[in-house]
């Protein structure tokens, strides 16, 4: 079942201005290219050849993408609003499940790792407090549900609220 869903999952390419949003899409489990300092032409070419939706704040790029028959979306500046709009458009569930996340830094998938395995790569006090870790299969970065987790949850809760508003749930 998860396999089928994984195959259908939307893939994205985001423009230079949206590095932060790229990291969020990856955490949410979406294969996302961050086209930092790419020309529009290259962004459109890769979007087309890899079947990626273009996420941008640049109206010109948006228009060019749509004219080319590509999926494209303009997102507002505020992160929570951008997440809500992407969720509405692409049916993204605004919840982070690290087992399905991709590495925010490099976009590779993560795998679970034991405390034993990450020993020496995380601070000792983290090892004492956590037993579940994730390791990036690309760059090797180690992740755990640390103090930053609450911030992630708070941002997503706010994004879900705004999504409800977009859906016309009042407010
Ligand atoms: Zn990585």
Q: Uncertain regions: pLDDT < 50 for 5+ in a row?
A: none
Hetero compounds: zinc ion
Largest sheet: 4 strands, parallel
Order of helices and strands: HEHEHEHEHEHHEEH
Key descriptive features of the protein:
binds zinc ion; alpha/beta; Rossmann fold; 171 residues; 3-stranded antiparallel sheet; 2 domains; 45% helix; 8 helices; 17% strand; 4-stranded parallel sheet
Structural features, described:
This protein is an alpha/beta fold and 171 residues long. It folds into 2 domains: 2-95, Rossmann fold (3-Layer(aba) Sandwich); 110-143, no CATH class. It contains 8 helices and 7 strands. The strands form 2 sheets. Strands 2-1-3-4 form a 4-stranded parallel beta sheet, with helices on both faces. A 3-stranded antiparallel beta sheet has the order 5-6-7. The site of zinc ion (ZN) has 8 residues, from loops.
In short:
By secondary structure, the protein is an alpha/beta fold. The protein is built from eight helices and seven strands; from the N terminus they run αβαβαβαβαβααββα. The chain has helices spanning 2-8, 19-27, 40-50, 59-67, 79-90, 115-118, 124-129, 148-166, and strands at 11-15, 32-35, 52-56, 72-74, 110-114, 132-136, 142-143.
């Amino acid at each position: 079942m998860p396999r089928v869903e994984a195959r259908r999952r939307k893939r994205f390419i985001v423009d230079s201005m949206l590095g932060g949003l790229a990291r969020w899409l990856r955490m949410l489990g979406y294969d996302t290219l961050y086209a930092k300092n790419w020309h529009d032409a290259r962004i459109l070419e890769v979007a087309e050849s890899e079947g990626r939706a273009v996420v941008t704040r640049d109206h010109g790029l948006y228009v060019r993408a749509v004219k080319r028959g590509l999926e494209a979306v303009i997102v507002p500046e505020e992160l929570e609003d951008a997440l809500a709009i992407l969720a509405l458009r692409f049916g993204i569930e605004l919840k982070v499940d690290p087992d399905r996340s991709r590495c925010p830094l490099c976009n590779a998938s993560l795998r679970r790792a034991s405390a034993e395995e990450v020993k020496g790569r995380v601070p000792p006090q983290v090892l004492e407090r956590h037993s579940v870790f994730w390791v990036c299969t690309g760059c090797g970065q180690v992740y755990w549900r640390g103090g930053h987790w609450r911030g992630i949850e708070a941002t997503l809760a706010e994004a879900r609220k705004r999504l409800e508003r977009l859906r016309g749930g009042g407010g």
